[in-house]
Each structure stands twice: as C-alpha cells, then as structure tokens.
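Risk register update: the risk of archive-format incompatibility is retired. Evidence:
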Amino acid sequence: MWLSCTHSQRIPSGQLDPRQRPRLIEIIQNLRERIREARANGWLGEVEGLQVSFDAAMAKLNSLSDLRPMVGRSWSPLACRSSPTTHPRPGRDREGGPP
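Archived output:
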C-alpha cells in the first residue's frame, strides 16, 4: 500500500496512513476468500500468489497496529516535507536559514 506525496515520492510500507486501516482489512478479507476459492478449485499457482499478497497485507496491517498510538494525532510523513535547500520557506534563504 503506497501513499502519494506532493513530491511524487512513494512512502515505504512502514509509514502507512492509519486512516487506510479499514481498506486494508477489506483487502485481507477478499484475499482470504480468493485463497479459499483457489484451493477449492485446485489452482495451486493461484493459491501461492494470493498467499504472498495476503502475507504482505498482514505485515502492513501489523505495522499499522504498531502505529495505533499516533491515530489521534495529525499524520504527516517526514518523507513529504520540503527540504529547506530545495524548497525554501517564505522568509528563509536557499540554505534554510534566516535571510
């Protein structure tokens, strides 16, 4: 699960938006159903691929559980912050210091 950023960077799975938890749970439930169907039909290759996706989704859900204390706070990933050397804020020079 990737999140977009104003700088077109991708945020690694360790920095997920906790608000995406319900959608991730939905995806996991769907994967469980698809794994059951694939097993019932003997689609072993499909089972294997779905299991990889299921394991990755569960790992992301677990990482969100580790972030639960942050849920009530405003979520702002550091990866999306402007670097003072590339995007100076008003009242700052290109090095990030006062003008």
